[in-house]
Write a structure and sequence with these properties.
The complex is a heterodimer of chains A (128) and B (943). Chain A is built from 4 helices and 1 strand; from the N terminus they run αααβα. With 128 residues, chain A is mainly alpha-helical. The longest helix of chain A is centred in the middle third of the chain and has 32 residues. Helix content of chain B is 72%, strand content 3%. In chain B, strand 1 and strand 2 form a beta hairpin. In chain B, helix 19 crosses helix 21 and helix 36 crosses helix 37. The chains are: A mainly alpha (128), B mainly alpha (943).
Chain lengths: 128, 943
């Protein structure tokens, strides 16, 4: 189980880092969101994995999950939301001010090409 | 409490408040700010007056308040003889300058700004001389650099003023940093930052191995401030300032701050060969270079600038001799130089003011146009040259005597009297030039204005200073002797040596040197034409400023190149550096770990459901990346990731986290959907293969590293600190849900910080979106028209019915939070979702009409509630955010526990609701505004 969690965290980190390195604002925001998931789960598992033992004081309980990482992660989730919201609005603002969504304010970087949109496809889908 | 218990900080800080008043009063009337400034100066003197007698009784007044006691920094002031002398110089000459400047400034110059700067500068200077704590002294020291920058660049439209000010700031600011370093070392050696301790620990300091570094750093501060070679070149460029500023900065204040520091640290640092060579050497070179260069300056103020450099060198040299008698002479010359130099600068200002030029090639024969000014100038310049019966003569005699004494000290030092005599010859020559070239020597050459005497009040300050020059020169025992005695005592921190202030000491060697200097000075002046040709050919080309500019340019180029190497103006590039650095740092960690990568701890068994969920999560993660160019699809995929993460929290005993993650997920996806509306619906195709493969390598490495790191931790046993929280949650915090008790009680101040961040994010979003208009797309990615239809009826009805229910759930989750999973964060998110759903289903207009609450107020009240809870605890005498709880019995509900932390949790709740709803509604309004605009446009077009 531990390996599984570690791999899940690793996969989310990889995807997050990769998206963060992209050139357009929206994927970067997605990447940071994924990184936030990865970091939150990582912090959470630092208290070790526990099944069926929530950190609520109960005379009948045999043991408790570590409450401290949970408290840390709880606020981290909310802060991550605040950060995501701020970033996406920053991206909107950049779009409004510069007229494009490149992270450096370029219209089209050297290593990009416009996605071609075939008109036939468009008309087809309109009918649907 | 008597005034002498707290008057010193008032003396130093009053001018800062006065600056505000002066700036403000200039609105009333042009002259008002001048009289305000003068009044403030007099008031500062009045506050200082009750303490006058203390240094005269041989005591030192210390006023100290604890500031940062843990690192030994106090808010501490000190008044001894030295401080008193300087404080009086700063205040008295400051007052004269204020009167003078009132008439000097033209109608175009802003009076309020000038006097505000001047007062701030005065306060900074007073702070330096009255400081007991060395750190505080450095703070005031830096303040003088900053305020003098403002003063020198007062005529902001002039390029030379801006450049001169920048140069002065760069040099003195850098020196200030060195001084800070030196003072820190000194404090380290002595174990205290208070001057009283440092001055008493001279032997300890001089014997310490860090003595030389400390001395060099402090001297760097001194030399830069007091324009000593090789840092002297900023001073002439600072002459671009209005003349009253030059008169103030370069006679009694700014440049004397360095000299003051030499005097201040004299008992602690002097008396070693290092001190003698560094201080004496710099002083002597500066003395000679300044005197020589002054003769060849055609600008009146340029001459005075180099003469100031030269006299500062003279004083520094005296301190460099290191004997008590030399210190007496140095202090005496500080007083004399302040008086005659201030008056000479003011005369230069009068001449500039009345003739329109300061070029001595044009200024000739002014005696008949302004005889009064001419007499004043002649007396002051004679004092500068060291003519008998004037104050400059007395201190120069003492200086020569000390130079002779010093030459006996070692066989190498025989040249000292010769060099100082040569410099003195040049001093006489340039003083003579100031008199002869300007007031005699034929007729003026095409002056811009016909010269005449200045307004009476411009001359009165000069009159007073010149009277002082005469009085000190003729009857020193009855004028300067008492203040000199206490100042010397304050400098040396012991009984001063025996010295005589008499005018006539018999026909001795110093007098011979004086007479020789006077005679040869006249000779040098008469040969000035020929000397000038020689000077132009050989010396004038050496320009310290060029070296300074070259160094500055080289530094600038280097830093630009260094920055460019890392930051190419590309976020992707920068991000690669950051992540790459993290990878390298992590790799070093793995490689240097002595133990095996994995530990011995037994893991949990794997079960099929969890495995499948994890696989689904990984697939969804992959799809997010894969579909990143089709943005809406990627958003759906990431939503799946978030949902599975929250399921994971359920599985691994974290119900609070699961609830939070779930509600945040909803809000985040709605938010991103709203934003996506305004962003391009797809990304361009990336074709840079090198970059793509590089990024894949980096991200795989990051993932593998994190996986291994996680396993390295999870496979080991650990000893959690949470036992404390588990044991104390119920008895100490009054709640059984330990996570919530940690949030609102044990770590309440962290939570407070976090909700502040959230509030700021919400406000920041509001500010960014307020008034912004974005072009709304009329078609989606496939060219379909956006459906602008009204909101679906079923959804409208359902959400309206659901609202009370959802709010009730929020309240329920909130109330039980202390004991069961829930609490302010989760309840806040649920309530926010409930409100946002209304906006989504019914539209902004409909909902805003019915929900009048302004989310700014909600956030504000939330922060107030959270902080207020903490403050109540302080009010009751407990530390900030201490909580308490009790049990109430309500009808129907039964026995009910109320913790004061619930008020804190209400704060959390409100901030979360406010920030979340504000962000989303603001985004929603944006789309509403764009559409509204479109409709409007279409309507207009149809018309």
């Amino acid at each position: 189980m531990e390996w599984l969690m570690a791999i899940v965290i690793g996969v989310m980190t990889s995807a997050g880092v990769y998206l963060t390195l992209r050139a357009r604002t929206f994927p970067v925001v997605l990447g940071l969101t994924l990184l936030a998931y990865a970091v939150n789960v990582f912090l959470f598992v630092m208290g070790r994995l526990t099944i069926g033992q929530p950190a609520v004081i109960d005379a009948a309980a045999t043991g408790y999950a570590d409450p401290l990482p949970q408290a840390l992660v709880l606020t981290a989730i909310v802060i991550a939301f605040g950060m995501t919201a701020f970033l996406i609005v920053l991206a909107l603002k950049a779009r409004g001010e510069m007229g494009n969504d490149h992270v450096d304010g370029l219209h089209l970087a050297d290593d990009e090409r416009l996605v071609e949109q075939t008109p036939s496809q468009t008309s087809q889908e309109t009918k649907l | 409490m008597s005034l002498v218990a707290f008057n010193l900080p008032i003396v130093a800080l009053l001018p800062f408040f006065g600056a505000i008043l002066a700036a403000w009063s200039s609105k009333l009337n042009r002259a008002a700010s001048a009289w305000t400034a003068a009044g403030i100066t007099v008031l500062s003197m009045a506050f200082l007056a009750p303490a006058f007698s203390i240094p005269f009784n041989g005591e030192t007044l210390i006023q100290s308040w604890a500031w940062m006691p843990a690192i030994g920094v106090d808010f501490a002031f000190r008044l001894d003889g030295l401080a008193l002398l300087f404080a009086m110089l700063i205040l008295v000459i400051g007052l004269l300058i204020i009167v003078y400047a009132r008439y000097y400034l033209s109608a175009k110059d802003s009076m309020g700004r000038f006097f505000a700067y001047l007062l701030m500068f005065m306060g900074s200077m007073l702070g330096i001389v009255l400081s007991e704590n060395m750190i505080q002294l450095v703070v005031f020291w830096e303040l003088t650099s900053l305020t003098s920058f403002l003063l020198i660049s007062y005529w902001q439209h002039r390029q030379d003023a801006r450049q001169g000010a920048r140069m002065a700031l760069a040099i003195t600011g850098a020196g200030g940093l060195a001084l800070l370093g030196g003072v820190l070392i000194l404090g380290h050696i002595v174990g205290s930052y208070n001057l009283t301790d440092v001055l008493a620990a001279g032997d300890l300091i001089r014997a310490h191995e860090l003595y030389v570094p400390a001395l060099v750093l402090i001297l760097l501060g001194v030399f830069t401030k007091s324009a000593q070679f090789p840092f002297h070149f900023w001073l002439p460029h600072a002459m671009a300032a209005p003349t009253p500023v030059s008169a103030y900065l370069h006679s009694a204040t700014m440049v004397k701050a360095g000299i003051f520091l030499l005097a201040r640290f004299f008992p602690a640092l002097s008396g070693t060969p290092e001190w003698m060579w560094l201080v004496g050497g710099a002083g002597m070179i500066t003395f000679v270079i300044g005197a020589y260069t002054a003769l060849f300056k055609h600008d009146l103020k340029g001459l005075l600038a180099y003469s100031t450099i030269s006299h500062l060198g003279l004083i520094t040299l005296l301190f460099g001799f290191g004997t008590h008698m030399a210190a007496v002479a140095a202090i005496f010359h500080i007083i004399n130089h302040a008086t005659f130099k201030a008056s000479l600068f003011m005369v230069a200002g009068i001449i500039d003011h009345e003739t329109g030029t300061r070029d001595m090639r044009k200024l000739n024969g002014l005696l008949k146009y302004m005889p009064h000014t001419a007499v004043l100038a002649m007396i002051a310049a004679a004092a500068m040259a060291g003519v008998p019966l004037l104050n400059g003569f007395l201190s120069k005699e003492m200086f020569f005597e000390q130079a002779i004494t010093a030459s006996h000290a070692s066989t190498l030092a025989w040249f000292i009297p010769i060099i100082v005599t040569i410099a003195a010859i040049f001093s006489v020559a340039y003083s003579l030039r100031f008199i002869h070239d300007v007031f005699f020597n034929g007729e003026p050459v095409d002056l811009p204005k016909t010269p005449h005497e200045p307004p009476r009040f411009m001359k009165i300050p000069v009159d007073l200073l010149v009277i002082v020059c005469l009085a000190v020169g003729i009857i020193p025992m009855f004028t300067v002797a008492p203040i000199l005695a206490v100042a010397v005592a304050g400098t040396l921190q012991t009984t001063p040596p025996e010295y005589s202030l008499a005018i006539w000491h018999g026909f001795n060697l110093p007098l011979m040197m004086s007479l020789l200097a006077l005679a040869l000075g006249v000779g040098v002046y008469s040969m000035r034409e020929r000397l000038h040709v020689w000077h132009e050919r050989f010396i004038a080309r050496i320009d310290a400023r060029a070296i300074y500019n070259a160094v500055l340019l080289a530094t600038l180029r280097f830093s630009v190149r260094l920055t460019r190497a890392f930051d190419k103006g590309s976020l992707q590039h920068a991000a690669v550096w950051v992540i790459g650095t993290a990878l390298v740092a992590g790799l070093i960690g793995f490689l240097s770990m002595p133990a095996a990568l994995l530990g011995e701890r037994e893991g949990l068994p794997l079960d099929a459901v969890t495995f499948l969920a994890a696989v689904a999560l990984m697939i969804a993660t992959y799809l997010t990346v894969h579909w990143r160019e089709k943005r809406l699809t990627a958003l759906i995929a990431i939503g799946v990731v978030g949902l599975i993460v929250s399921l994971g929290f359920v599985k691994f005993s974290a119900p609070d986290l699961a609830l939070t993650q779930l509600s945040v997920e909803v809000v985040t996806i709605v938010l991103l959907l709203l934003a996506l509306y305004f962003l391009p619906q797809s990304s361009p195709k990336e074709i840079g293969r090198v970059r793509l493969s590089r990024d894949i390598v980096i991200s795989v490495l990051a993932g593998v590293g994190v996986t291994l790191f996680t396993m390295a931790v999870l496979s080991r046993e650990f000893d959690p600190i949470s036992t404390y929280f588990l044991e104390n949650a119920k008895p100490g915090g009054g709640g059984t849900n330990v996570v919530n008790v940690i949030l609102v009680d044990f770590r309440g101040i962290d939570t407070l910080g976090e909700i502040v961040v959230l509030a700021l994010a919400g406000l920041g979003i509001y500010a960014m979106l307020e008034g912004m208009k974005l072009p709304a797309p009329s078609k989606d990615i496939h060219g379909r028209q956006w459906n602008l239809d009204n909101h679906p009826m079923i959804m409208q009805t359902l959400t309206r019915l659901l609202l009370p229910l959802m709010l009730m759930v929020a309240v329920y989750i909130f109330l039980r939070g202390h004991n069961l999973p829930g609490g302010g964060f989760i309840a806040g998110l649920i309530a926010a979702v409930a409100l946002i759903v209304q906006y989504l289903a019914n539209g902004i207009e409909w909902t805003s009409d019915r929900l009048k609450a302004d989310m700014h107020w909600v956030i504000g009240f939330g922060l107030l509630a959270a902080t207020g809870t903490g403050l109540v605890a302080i009010g009751l005498g407990f530390p900030f955010l201490t909580s308490t709880f009790t049990y109430l019995t309500w009808p129907v509900v039964g026995k009910f526990e109320v913790a004061s932390a619930i008020a804190f949790d209400i704060g959390v709740f409100l901030v979360v609701v406010g920030a979340t709803v504000m962000s989303l509604v603001q985004l929603g309004k944006l789309s509403y505004a764009s559409h509204h605009n479109d409709d409007h446009k279409t309507q207009q077009e149809t018309k």
